[in-house]
């Protein structure tokens, strides 16, 4: 049995969740077993059943007000309990920030081997080998998991969301928690709303110190809006409060893997590249022809961002209206 954690926000499933469900379903198919998705919190069962479309055979839902908010302790207990109830040998989750904080906890509860940052399906020709990224995405490691229970935390934006067209049954189950599972008090949760999530975005427009100041971000936001992209920035930009920390990408920020990353006025320091170098296509715009970003970029524009950006924006608008 393969159990997949289907993370939701207010009952809605993110793209990274659908990727994890499709990955688990694919794995279940090749192992001739079933794929069970675990949903936590007070969610709508008709919506939960839609996970069948992405390959879940069954959805196990644990409904409780206390699970409406993410706590690593209670979520790990819930997922480990369902995995035990279902005799799961493989547990799949997305390597999102919540996935990262629970995979090790589940592993400890189940004596399981865990691999995070997975970028391949397992190769079982000689053991159970999965490929993962290491050294901030600069290299890959092939890891053999030898424990009976295996946990795979897959990298978002790596596997396609596939439609399997199944109908999933939904089962409501109860799990016994203890006090420690709710030892953390959550006072408030503030979510960025109305914007494309950076980790899920397929297109990202990012600015660095070359943008000179927060007052110049209007054109980056406009370009992002025309392209349907998320906005990101380098570390100094968020350190100086030009942009929120939630947009900081790199070794100490978020790691992203969009189809297109446009870097404007960013030098391309190794710590920045660590978070973006797995992007499928990178475009760097920099006035310094020697900027290190050009070595990592697929396309480079040597020029002043304040001359280049209005032209790109105009072209993007034309393209959008031509395809509308
Ligand atoms: C332990 C550690 C962790 C770090 N983690 C991160 C991290 O996670 N993410 C991160 O981003 N950084 C990180 N850094 C910082 C990193 O080393 C760089 O200092 C940082 O990425 C530089 O940001 P920047 O490119 O925006 O600024 P700068 O290095 O100042 O580069 C600005 C660039 O803009 C160009 N430019 C200037 N004016 C224009 C213009 N008008 N038009 C076009 N181009 C122009 C310049 O030629 C230059 O290349 C880390 C550093 C350390 C030591």
Tell me the radius of gyration: 21 Å
Assigned CATH class of the largest domain: Alpha Beta
Largest sheet: 7 strands, parallel
Look at the structure and give the mean pLDDT.
95
Order of helix and strand elements from N to C terminus: EEEHEHEHEHEEEEEEHEHEHEHEH
Q: Count helical runs.
A: 9
Walk across the major sheet and give the strand order: 7-10-6-1-4-5-11
**Oligomer type:** single chain
Instruction: Report the CATH topology name of the largest domain.
Output: Rossmann fold
Distance between the termini: 45 Å
| CATH homolog superfamily of the largest domain | HUPs
Q: Would you identify the regions where 5 or more consecutive residues have pLDDT less than 50?
A: none
In the CATH hierarchy, what is the architecture of the largest domain at level 2?
3-Layer(aba) Sandwich
Query: Into which percent range does the helicity of residues fall?
Result: 25-40%
Task: Provide the number of structural domains.
Answer: 2
Strand content: 15-25%
**Strand runs, count:** 16
Bound small molecules, which ones?
A: flavin-adenine dinucleotide
Category by helix and strand content:
alpha/beta
Instruction: Specify the overall morphology.
Output: globular
Helix-strand layout with pairing:
Blueprint: E1 2-5, E2 8-9, E3 12-13, H1 15-30, E4 35-40, H2 45-49, E5 58-62, H3 72-85, E6 90-94, H4 97-110, E7 113-118, E8 129-134, E9 139-144, E10 150-154, E11 169-172, E12 203-207, H5 218-227, E13 230-233, H6 235-239, E14 260-264, H7 270-276, E15 281-286, H8 293-296, E16 299-302, H9 305-323
Parallel strand pairs: 1-4, 1-6, 4-5, 5-11, 6-10, 7-10, 12-13, 12-14, 14-15, 15-16
Antiparallel strand pairs: 2-3, 8-9
The structure holds flavin-adenine dinucleotide.
């Amino acid at each position: 049995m393969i159990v997949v954690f289907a993370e939701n926000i207010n009952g809605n499933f993110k793209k990274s969740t659908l990727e994890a469900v499709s990955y688990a379903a694919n794995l279940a198919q090749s192992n001739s077993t079933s794929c069970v998705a675990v949903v936590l919190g007070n969610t709508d069962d008709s919506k939960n059943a839609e996970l069948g479309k992405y390959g879940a055979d069954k959805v196990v839902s644990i409904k409780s007000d206390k699970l409406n908010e993410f706590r690593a302790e209670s979520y790990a207990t819930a997922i480990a309990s369902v995995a035990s109830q279902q005799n799961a040998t493989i547990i799949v989750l997305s390597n999102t920030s919540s996935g990262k904080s629970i995979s090790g906890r589940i592993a400890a509860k189940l004596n399981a081997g865990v691999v995070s940052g997975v970028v391949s399906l397992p190769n079982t020709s000689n053991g159970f080998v999965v490929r993962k990224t290491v050294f901030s995405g600069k290299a890959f490691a092939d890891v053999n998991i030898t424990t009976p229970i295996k946990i795979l935390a897959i990298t978002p934006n790596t596997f396609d969301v596939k439609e399997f067209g199944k109908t999933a049954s939904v089962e409501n189950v109860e799990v016994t928690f203890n006090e420690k599972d709710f030892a953390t008090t959550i006072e408030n949760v503030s979510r960025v709303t109305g914007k494309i999530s950076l980790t899920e975005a397929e297109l990202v427009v990012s600015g660095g110190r070359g943008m000179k100041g927060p007052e110049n971000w209007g054109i980056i936001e406009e370009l992002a809006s025309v392209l349907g992209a998320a906005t990101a920035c380098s570390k100094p930009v968020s350190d100086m409060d030009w942009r929120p920390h939630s947009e900081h990408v790199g070794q100490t920020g978020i790691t992203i893997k969009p189809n297109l990353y446009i870097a404007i006025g960013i030098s391309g320091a190794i710590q920045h590249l660590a978070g973006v170098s797995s992007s499928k296509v990178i475009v760097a715009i920099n006035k310094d022809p020697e900027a290190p970003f050009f070595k990592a970029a697929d396309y480079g524009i040597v020029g002043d961002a304040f001359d280049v950006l209005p032209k790109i924006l105009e072209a993007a608008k034309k393209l959008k209206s031509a395809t509308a």
